[in-house]
Design a protein that fits this description.
The complex is a heterodimer of chains A (176) and B (492). By secondary structure, chain A is an alpha+beta fold. Chain A is built from 4 helices and 7 strands, in the order βααββββαββα. Chain A is elongated, with a radius of gyration of 22 Å. The N terminus of chain A is likely disordered. Chain B is an alpha+beta fold and 492 residues long. Chain B has 4 domains: 165 residues, no CATH class; 73 residues, no CATH class; 153 residues, no CATH class; 56 residues. In chain B, β3 and β4 form a beta hairpin. The longest helix of chain B is centred in the C-terminal third of the chain and has 29 residues. Chain B is globular and about 70 Å long. The chains are: A alpha+beta (176), B alpha+beta (492). β4 of chain A pairs antiparallel with β18 of chain B.
Chain lengths: 176, 492
């Protein structure tokens, strides 16, 4: 690695990468993400239909072209995104820290010490309820740092919330 | 029962004055347009405005009790705001010109995350405000600070014996005073230029309104148009510089940064509107040295503080130093953050992948523009001279990309994480390792292919997150390991 200004003394030897978080989310999350993707696609379809009736030109070739592109992209999105997400999404919580991995095209890992945790939320959206899933969101005092785990089995999510709450209570300080 | 305290009755004058100022443009129009026959409606409005002020004075009261500050407002819709004293982060005293004439100041107490977590007392006597600030920030006991000064004959310290520590107690240490010569940096910052642009916009709007009626203005404008183009350029530059300088003077005149015995930072500034900000040292999480291109070329910097409880809408309360020569700013930064390696030491660069990404980002927009120009020439017959800008654009973009790469850097010291990025708005952030409350390692699709990641340190202060952009993946985890070894050990 090249260094401008002056050469820094070598820092401690690299420790290698962090391993992935231990647990996958529920397999039913694939279904949940598919339904959510379908909802998004349906909104676009509605737009296409409105355009079909509003447009009063005789030629329909523009509609077929846009529709075909839309169809290919949508099918790819609905099929690929949920499975890709499922392969990426992972989580792990220990006595001292919580660690998540999420995303598909854009991936990210988030890690926060339990001592800095401020609130722990359990959320169940309409689609998640359909699949008996829940998501857990852990916020810290930073507006940039909430950790969310989507697509957890409801009992697993409840147990996680309980253990995180217990661990957070043991730690002290105002977490900023 | 702790007695309730009220705003100063002189605030009864402040409210009508502020209403008047707010309505001034409308009033001027009405006064110009009216004929004598109109009824004097402002005489009817006046009692209402005064009554509103009186009601506000009667209904607003505050007190400090049981380690909390309570603020009560409203007549019908009574609101009580309570905040724990140990949550108070900053206290601002602002005095506009009319406040100053009356010896008043508006006190704003910031207690938490959002802009809603603020208590505003408009207004108190300046001394009352300062006393309140001392009570809030240092939990000073009002029963002691409120005692009359001690009486009796003064005793010479020499009579008390030689072993008594007679070093005078330094109450406040002055860290920085504005040097009027620094005004020369005003036109070099975007803040200065933005102020100039705003003023120009305001004035030009005024001109267009009057231009229809005034022949003199039209004559002058025509005269200007007939001048050589370079005179116009000089005139505009002169005007912009003048406006930027006046904005600098208005904002920063009398800028003084002090630190008291307890470590609180106090900033006082302003020519017409004076503003005093006090920052509790327990809330400070680091500093930010701003090095925008203009200032860098002139050998200047400016300094901000990274602290919890200050938000952007508070308009520059986080400035510890206005644009000033680099050595002054570095020395000041070292006084506030005694870690010279972090403040001015060398940084580790982010490597070839980061450089490639910076250059790509700089060049691609230029290619798009050039393609557009070529298409425009082929289809709509745009003049070929337009293509002449392409080399200029390319060179500028390349220079920007190279500078953006050279600016990228990070370092981990014993107590701080340092990150630097940007070119036109380059900034170096020195963040307390203690202030980091979480991490993110982000990788876009292209970042994964290039083997780099963006390491984000989240914090409760300042911008809430500070990023190390495009570091090699193993380096990102090495930084994480160095700052939070036990955290990484959990998942190693």
């Amino acid at each position: 690695m090249d260094v401008h200004d002056e050469q820094l003394p070598p820092s401690q030897p690299p420790r290698g990468l962090m391993r992935e978080p231990a647990h996958r989310v529920s397999t039913r999350a694939v279904g949940m993400w598919t339904v959510e993707a379908l909802v998004g696609v349906a909104v676009l379809l509605a737009g296409q239909i409105v355009w079909w009736f509003v447009d009063d030109r005789a030629s329909r070739s523009a509609h077929w072209l846009v529709g075909a592109v839309w169809l290919v992209l949508s099918v790819a999105y609905v099929v690929v995104m949920p499975r890709w997400r499922y392969r990426v999404h992972r989580w792990e919580a220990t006595q001292h820290a919580i660690y998540t991995q999420a995303g598909w095209l854009r991936q990210e890992r988030r890690i926060a010490p339990i001592s800095r945790v401020q609130t722990i939320d359990l959320e169940r959206g309409p689609v998640a309820q359909l699949f008996r899933l829940a998501s857990v969101t852990v916020t810290t005092a930073s507006a940039a740092g909430p950790l969310s785990i989507h697509g957890l089995d409801l009992p697993v999510a409840q147990e996680l919330v309980e253990s995180l709450t217990a661990a957070a209570i043991r730690e002290r300080g105002d977490a900023t | 029962m702790t007695p309730w305290r009220r705003l100063n009755p002189r605030m009864l004058l402040v409210h009508p004055i502020e209403t008047l100022i707010r309505l001034l443009p409308a009033l001027v129009v009405v006064l110009i347009a009216r004929s004598d026959s109109d009824s004097r409606w402002e005489l009817i409005a006046l009692p209402f405005i005064v009554a509103f002020g009186v009601m506000r004075w009667v209904t607003t009261r505050y007190r400090i009790v049981d380690g909390q500050i309570e603020l009560q407002r409203g007549l019908l819709n009574k609101q009580t705001t309570t905040a724990r004293l140990d949550k108070v982060r900053t206290v601002d005293l602002t005095a506009k010109v009319h406040h100053r004439l009356l010896g008043l100041a508006k006190v704003e107490i910031s207690t938490g995350g959002g802009p809603r977590d603020r208590l505003v007392l408009d207004s108190l006597l300046v001394d009352e405000g300062r006393r309140l600030r001392a009570e809030l920030l240092h939990r000073a006991n009002p029963e002691i600070t409120g005692l009359p000064a001690p009486t009796g004959a003064p005793v010479d310290v020499g009579d008390l014996g030689p072993d008594l520590d007679v070093a005078p107690v330094v109450d406040e240490e002055v860290l920085l005073r504005l040097d009027p010569a620094w005004v020369r940096y005003a036109p070099l910052t975007t803040t200065g230029l933005a102020a100039a642009a705003a003023a120009l916009g305001f004035v030009s709007q005024g001109f267009t309104r009057f231009a229809d009626e005034s022949d003199v203005l039209v004559e002058r404008a025509r005269g200007l148009r007939e001048l050589a183009w370079w005179i116009d350029v000089v005139l505009v530059l002169g005007l912009v510089c003048g406006l930027a300088v006046s904005a600098y003077v208005l904002t920063f005149w009398g800028f003084r940064l002090t630190r008291n015995r307890l470590g609180s930072l106090h900033i006082r500034r302003g020519l017409l509107t004076t503003r005093e900000t006090s920052i509790d040292p327990a809330r400070v999480r680091g500093i930010q040295v701003d090095e925008p291109l203009g200032l860098r070329l002139a050998g200047a910097r400016r300094l901000k503080v990274v602290t919890t409880g200050l938000h952007r809408e508070q308009g520059g309360s986080d400035w510890l130093c206005p644009p000033a020569p680099a050595p002054t700013v570095t020395a000041l930064a070292c006084q506030i953050t005694p870690d010279e390696q972090a403040v001015s030491g060398p940084l580790r660069s982010h490597g070839p992948a980061a450089r490639r990404r910076r250059l790509t980002r700089a060049i691609v927009p230029v290619l798009v523009v050039v393609a557009l120009l070529v298409v425009g020439r082929l289809i709509w017959g745009w003049t070929a001279a337009l293509l002449g800008v392409a080399p200029v654009l390319a060179v500028a973009a390349l220079a920007l990309g190279v500078d953006r790469y050279r600016s990228l850097g990070h370092a981990v010291t014993a107590a701080h994480l340092v990150t630097r990025h940007g070119s036109l708005d380059r900034q170096r952030v020195v963040l307390d390792r203690e202030g980091i409350i979480g991490w993110k390692v982000e990788q876009s699709f292209f970042q994964r292919r290039a083997g780099v990641a963006t390491l984000v340190a989240t914090t409760a202060a300042g911008r809430q997150h500070y990023d190390l952009v495009d570091v090699p993946v193993d380096r990102a985890y090495a930084v994480l390991a160095e700052v939070n070894p036990d955290l990484l050990a959990e998942f190693a």
